[in-house]
Amino acid sequence: MDTQKYHALLRAIELGSFSAAAEELGYTPSGIRQMAEAVEREMGFPLLLRGRSGIRPTGACQVLLPRFHELIRAEKLLQLDAAELKGLSVGSVTIGAYSSVAINRLPRVLQQFHQDFPQISICLREGIHQELDTWLENREVDFCLYSGSADKSYDWFPLYQDPMLAVLPLSHPMAGCSSFPIEKIAEEPFIMPGNNGGGYDVVHLLEKNHIKPKIEFSTIENFSALAMIECGLGISIMNEGITLGRLNQVVMTPLEPPQHITIGIEIPSLKTGSPATRKMISYLRKMLTALKAKQRP
């Protein structure tokens, strides 16, 4: 199986030009162009729109992109399975994750995994919920660590519950209270952590509790949201994992009634995952579940 030309096509699309793909992959621009044209001939229709600003996929190509990723993945799985049958532990794993998980939960697992399997390379991609959904759908990552997608055909392995907290300025009248009534969210100026729908978990929580917040600010970056809260511009809701290790002068208090999100592993199919992917998931299920159990009072 030779998927070289499909890989060249995908990198050219992702980077927006034949030249950039050629520089990364070690080819000439004309070589990348010829491989892309070879795929077009195989498909029987154009896959790329070419212009002065670079290249981009046609509508038909966008439909086929997940299949191209699957084809490359299938070749990698074949190579990895063959290597495992020879008694080798080799390969690579690409993980998509919330930044809060990547910062506060993954490092110790990766440390142990790397000690046991130093020849397996790990690529970590951090993103918001919608990005992780897309990467998983397009098979750009092997699996994701987040609160899960709506695709019930995927395999889902819950790991732990992450409490949702009200985040308040120090000057807030309820800063000293043991909890924050969730219905009061609607009465406060609200800072949405994740603009353009990026705050998926917060939006889902608000909708589930029939609360319409007065959104006065929104930002894709939680650091920015915390800084705005610190300055008294409003309040917000965040999962506990986001707030760990942050030094902002804010108050974080449980919601009443208590709310949480479930962090877990989502993979299109554990059965068809590479040997390296299955090993990594085994480590995550064992270590992250045990880690959360130790933190319970």
UniProtKB/TrEMBL annotation:
<dbReference type="InterPro" id="IPR000847">
    <property type="entry name" value="LysR_HTH_N"/>
</dbReference>
<dbReference type="GO" id="GO:0005829">
    <property type="term" value="C:cytosol"/>
</dbReference>
<dbReference type="InterPro" id="IPR036390">
    <property type="entry name" value="WH_DNA-bd_sf"/>
</dbReference>
<dbReference type="InterPro" id="IPR036388">
    <property type="entry name" value="WH-like_DNA-bd_sf"/>
</dbReference>
<dbReference type="InterPro" id="IPR005119">
    <property type="entry name" value="LysR_subst-bd"/>
</dbReference>
<comment type="similarity">
    <text>Belongs to the LysR transcriptional regulatory family.</text>
</comment>
<dbReference type="Pfam" id="PF03466">
    <property type="entry name" value="LysR_substrate"/>
</dbReference>
<keyword id="KW-0238">DNA-binding</keyword>
<feature type="domain" description="HTH lysR-type">
    <location>
        <begin position="1"/>
        <end position="58"/>
    </location>
</feature>
<dbReference type="GO" id="GO:0003700">
    <property type="term" value="F:DNA-binding transcription factor activity"/>
</dbReference>
<dbReference type="GO" id="GO:0003677">
    <property type="term" value="F:DNA binding"/>
</dbReference>
<keyword id="KW-0804">Transcription</keyword>
<keyword id="KW-0805">Transcription regulation</keyword>
<keyword id="KW-0614">Plasmid</keyword>
<dbReference type="Pfam" id="PF00126">
    <property type="entry name" value="HTH_1"/>
</dbReference>
<dbReference type="InterPro" id="IPR050950">
    <property type="entry name" value="HTH-type_LysR_regulators"/>
</dbReference>
<protein>
    <submittedName>
        <fullName>LysR family transcriptional regulator</fullName>
    </submittedName>
</protein>
